[in-house]
Amino acid sequence: MNSAIYKTLLRPLSWLPFRALYMMSDVTAFTLRHIIRYRRKVVKTNLGAAFKGMHKRDLHRIEKKFYRNFTDSFFETAKLLNISDDEMRSRVSFEGLDIIDRMLDSGRSVIVYFAHTFNWEWAPSVTLFARHRPDDKVEYGQVYRPLRSAGFDALMLELRSRFGSVSYPKEQVLRRLIEARDRGQLTVTGFMSDQHPGHGDPGHITNLLGIPTRMISGTETLARKLGTGVVYWDVVRMGRGRYKIITRLLAENAADTRPGELTEAYTRRLEHTILRDPALWLWTHKRWKNHI
Predict the structure, then answer these.
(1) I need a labelling partner for 273 at 20 to 30 A (CA). Which of 113, 153, 249, 267 fits?
(2) Hey, CA dihedral for 264, 265, 266, 267, is it positive or negative?
(3) Cα separation of 63 and 54, whole Å?
(4) What local confidence, expressed as pLDDT, does residue 290 receive?
(5) What is the structure's pLDDT at 292?
(6) Strands 138-144, 186-192: pairing kind
(7) Which of 247, 244, 239 is nearest to 190 (CA)?
(8) Residue 140 belongs to what H/E stretch?
(9) Strand positions, DSSP E, 27-127
(10) Can you say how many angstroms the Cα of residue 86 is from the centroid of all Cα atoms in its chain?
(11) Starting at the edge strand that comes first in sequence, how are the strands of the sheet with 242-251 ordered?
(12) pTM of this prediction?
């Protein structure tokens, strides 16, 4: 299907009030978890590995909350087709953006470490809050892996550009950021770095939630090569459809850091986010398939 068909199917959802969407989300979460059993074995395996010794009742509670967060994120993403800037401002808040603004003021681009914590698809709304708006001087973007369905991929790119940011295919990001630097344009670029490393990325071996883990190291390599500032976006879910994103400084200049330092700092920050609210992370991926 092309993107127009996907939009036609999803647009009616975007017209519904959030209360109706969350009622639909509750039904969908129950269906995925108990009837379809969507990746339930993977979720249970991941949670059991990450929280050894936790009572089954508590693991059950996290799993149930996770599936609701998971389906909430789908309906919240569909809402991007119709949500106004004012409503988005009322539902998302950013803290610490002065850190990014200060780096841009000094002429330094910024790399943002981010993770699959719900709802990451609302993070591009940062352009509604930042002092530096997207223009010919500053470009906001995020790195993505193209989806197998060309139509759905086109739709997601459109949604992610809803607030003026751009998307860089993973294979092109270094070239695109170098091109921006050469033409004198500063960039603020989000990297989802909590997945297993891809081909060509040796990874950084550390412990995440007590499990030996090979973390993506390509983000750090790129930041050190370009000498960018580096921050972490810490997501706090305040309620259904309510998020706070806190900017945490990792490095003023990545070129001054040691190999592995940024990836380690990101891992510790991510671990803190997960432990604070375990159901916020995307547990349906095989997190430790590259288990050391």
Answers:
(1) 153
(2) positive
(3) 13
(4) 57
(5) 45
(6) parallel
(7) 247
(8) strand 138-144
(9) 92-95, 110-114
(10) 22
(11) 92-95, 242-251, 229-239, 110-114, 186-192, 138-144, 166-169
(12) 0.94
Determine the pLDDT at residue 117. 97
Spatial CB neighbours of 230, under 8 Å, sequence gap ≥ 6? 110, 111, 112, 113, 223, 249, 250, 251, 254, 262
Nearest Cα to Cα of residue 188 among 144, 133, 146, 237: 133
β-partners of residue 233 are 247
List the end-to-end C-alpha distance of the chain, in Å, as a whole number.
Answer: 40
Given this model, what pLDDT does residue 195 score? Answer: 73
DSSP string over 134-159: SSSSEEEEEEEPPPSSHHHHHHHHHH
Phi, psi angle pair for 90, to nearest 5°: -80, -15
- Rounded to an integer, what distance in angstroms lies between the CA atom of residue 134 and that of residue 123? 15
Peptide bond into 119 cis (omega under 30): yes
Longest CA span, the chain = 56
- CA separation for the pair 90, 15 (Å, rounded): 18
Give the whole-angstrom CA distance, residue 125 versus residue 74: 17
Q: How far apart are CA 94 and CA 104, in angstroms?
A: 17
Angle at 197 between CA 258 and CA 278, to 5 degrees: 90
| Contacts of residue 65, Cβ cutoff 8 Å, sequence gap at least 6 | 279
User: Phi, psi at residue 196, to the nearest 5°?
Assistant: -70, 150
The ranges assigned to domains in the chain are 3-280
Q: How high is the mean pLDDT in each 10-residue block of the chain (292 residues)? A: 76 95 98 98 96 96 98 97 96 98 97 96 97 93 89 90 94 95 97 78 90 93 97 98 98 97 98 98 86 51
